[in-house]
Structure formats: structure tokens, C-alpha cells
Design goal:
Number of helices: 4
Radius of gyration: 25 Å
Helix content: 25-40%
Strand order of the largest sheet: 1-2-3-4
């Protein structure tokens, strides 16, 4: 059988003026099942653009592909997201980047849910920017105090401290 080399083979002799383009792509995938769907996430990272991209402190670029299948309907949805990170390939493998991206949204979603739903920040309307800022600071202090207390579940903590203002004062004094 006659072997015909391909342009993508490393053994192919290069023509004058042609160079071998190094392939610096590293990938990782993870599959999760939950909330009535199966999600396949594949992250491909590269450091090849460090010398070419005019972006401060970037070390890697990545492409995150999400293939989401709804179990009830069988519908598939495909998303592609591109990103830049200041973490080098030695400090963040594609597996670690996948974990960091997932962890970021976990924190983001849990914090916003607590602020928007339980503390009802979205229903509050302030005409003054400084009043809204002060309310956000108070809510941050409140979330921190409740996390430190024996009542990390926010609705239960609000009910308990509303019924026991002396305990709320005691929690404040412990700072």
C-alpha cells in the first residue's frame, strides 16, 4: 500500500517559505447530569497567542463548548464561549480551568440568589445612588454575620433574629 503524506503529518518536508505551525491545544471534558439535563463541557486551551494578542497579562486563550441535552424533550443545545485568562498553562490545566469556571458561577449564582430573593434587593428602589450603595454594604454585613452564626440558612436566621433581637445584638457585639 502506498503511503501519501498529508500536510498535517510532522514528517512532511516543508516547502521553502513554509514553516511547521506548532499545535499547542490541550483539552478536557466533563459530563454532568442534573436538573433534567445532561451537559457535556469541553474546554480547549492554548498559549500560542501570547506573543500576538494585545491584551494585558494574558497567558492562555480558551474555547468552552457546552452540549446540553434536555432529558424530557431530547432537545440538544450547543453553546460556544471564548475566554482569556492570566493563568499560564503550568498554573492552570484545562481540567483546572473547567473547575474554576464552574466554581465561579456556583458562587455567583448562590450569592445573587441570596441577595435578590431572600433580601429582596431587586424590589428595593432608591433614587439616591449613595443610599443604594449603603444598603448593599448593610446586606453584605448581614450575609457575613449570618454565615458566621449558627444559622447559615438565611430565611431561618432572619426569622430567628427578628424574634430574638437580643441575640442579634449579641452577634453584632462579638465583632
Amino acid at each position: 500500500m502506498l503511503y501519501i503524506p498529508s500536510w498535517f503529518d510532522e514528517e512532511v518536508p516543508l516547502l521553502p517559505g513554509m514553516g511547521y505551525i506548532p499545535k499547542d491545544f490541550r483539552s478536557a471534558s466533563v459530563v454532568n447530569k442534573g436538573h433534567g439535563r445532561i451537559e457535556l463541557r469541553t474546554l480547549t486551551a492554548s498559549s500560542q497567542l501570547v506573543d500576538f494578542l494585545d491584551w494585558p497579562f494574558h497567558q492562555q486563550v480558551f474555547k468552552l463548548e457546552r452540549q446540553i441535552t434536555t432529558l424530557k424533550t431530547g432537545r440538544c443545545h450547543h453553546e460556544v464561549v471564548y475566554g482569556i485568562t492570566s493563568l499560564s498553562a503550568e498554573h492552570a490545566t484545562p481540567d483546572q480551568l473547567l473547575h474554576m469556571l464552574r466554581s465561579y458561577w456556583k458562587i455567583e449564582n448562590s450569592l445573587h440568589y441570596r441577595r435578590d430573593v431572600t433580601l429582596q434587593e431587586d424590589h428595593t428602589r432608591f433614587k439616591s445612588h449613595s443610599a443604594a450603595h449603603i444598603m448593599a454594604v448593610i446586606n453584605n454585613i448581614l450575609l457575613g454575620l449570618f454565615a458566621k452564626s449558627d444559622y447559615p440558612y438565611l430565611p431561618a436566621a432572619r426569622r430567628f433574629f427578628a424574634a430574638h433581637p437580643d441575640q442579634a445584638l449579641h452577634l453584632l457585639v462579638q465583632l
